[in-house]
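Box S1 | Example of a co-folding query
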Amino acid sequence: MSADRARPMPTVQILATADAAAREAAETLARWIRRDKTERAVVHVALAGGSTPRQAYRELAGMIDDWSGVHLWLGDDRYVPPDAPEANIAMVRAALATPSGIAEAQIHPVPIDADVAGSARHYGEMIAAALPAAPGGAPMFDIVVLGMGEDGHVASLFPESEALVTRDGVCVAVSDAPKPPAERVSLTLGVINAARRRLILTTGDVKADALANGLAAIDPRFPVSLVRDQHTTVIADRAAAALIDAD
Ligand code: 6PG
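Box S1 (continued) | Returned holo structure for 6-phosphogluconic acid
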């Protein structure tokens, strides 16, 4: 790891293949959820979208017998109908929510209101009403799952974007995402970092540059570098970890 990083590193686990990384992520999430369920009646999990976590969610669905008390949220979603093929909630339902048999009342999609700003406000109000507050006052998820884009974005917080630096509010509306679709609702960085723990799952050689830069130093050109290190676990395959500084 690069020596010039002025802060502790997240836990980084490198697996030989994307399948192995998906299995490790599923097992890690199952372990965290089981442990959280022994400590709290309700466990709130914010899930990543995109394509990388799909296999991990499919495996996670069968790893927990009792999903009672576990509430699934989205770390971000596209501002599209919930049954649209590019909707993150559609992927989460198909890969995890439906196969796990979790009750509908425990699944919390982003509401698609009249406009994306309204949806962001509405979702933020839902989250704030349902979750306990972290010491700094932000709603506190038990677990936030993140993917990472080739540019180092997490959730829908893109490099050097206004959304990335939005400090107030629980969710932020994005209308100029460089990764289509342009309109999205995302947790703010503050809420992501207020969670008890985070898991970042990233695979594939196209992610290698962003992951290496994201772990090397705090740099808004690579939003993943702004994710709090403490209580964060990065799970990557060898391809995505190929440029990480070994020492
Ligand atoms: C989204 C995701 C986004 C995703 C990354 C990686 O809505 O697109 O939430 O943050 O995690 O773009 O996407 P892939 O896993 O498809 O590479």
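The helical segments are 18-39, 54-61, 88-100, 116-130, 162-165, 189-194, 208-216. The mean pLDDT is 95.
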